[in-house]
Each structure stands twice: as C-alpha cells, then as structure tokens.
Amino acid sequence: MVPMKEVLPLIGYIRGGCSPLGMKKNYPTFFDQAILDLDTVNISAGL
C-alpha cells in the first residue's frame, strides 16, 4: 500500500478514487483466472 500523502502525486487521483481501471497512468491490472468461467463481469471504475 502507498502512504496516503503519496497517492495524489503518484496516480493523479485523490484517495478513494483509485481504481486500477481507467487510470490516468498505465499500471498493470491483474484478474483471477476464475473470471474466465463467468458469463458476465461488472466492474466499477469509479465516478
């Protein structure tokens, strides 16, 4: 985990608005292989 004071400079979002999807910077995102067994996956990328 990144210390709270480093979140905004690091990713460009305030704490609480940090989702690995739709980020301003390109960070690797990983999903569990079990996701392949699902017909539909809903993902919230924040507001």
Automatic annotation (TrEMBL):
Domain YbaK/aminoacyl-tRNA synthetase-associated positions: 1-46
One Pfam family, short name: tRNA_edit
GO molecular function terms attached to this record: aminoacyl-tRNA deacylase activity
Gene3D superfamilies: YbaK/aminoacyl-tRNA synthetase-associated domain
UniProt xrefs under InterPro entries: YbaK/aa-tRNA-synt-asso_dom_sf, YbaK/aa-tRNA-synth-assoc-dom
Protein name: YbaK/aminoacyl-tRNA synthetase-associated domain-containing protein
Upper lineage: Bacteria, Pseudomonadati, Bacteroidota, Cytophagia, Cytophagales
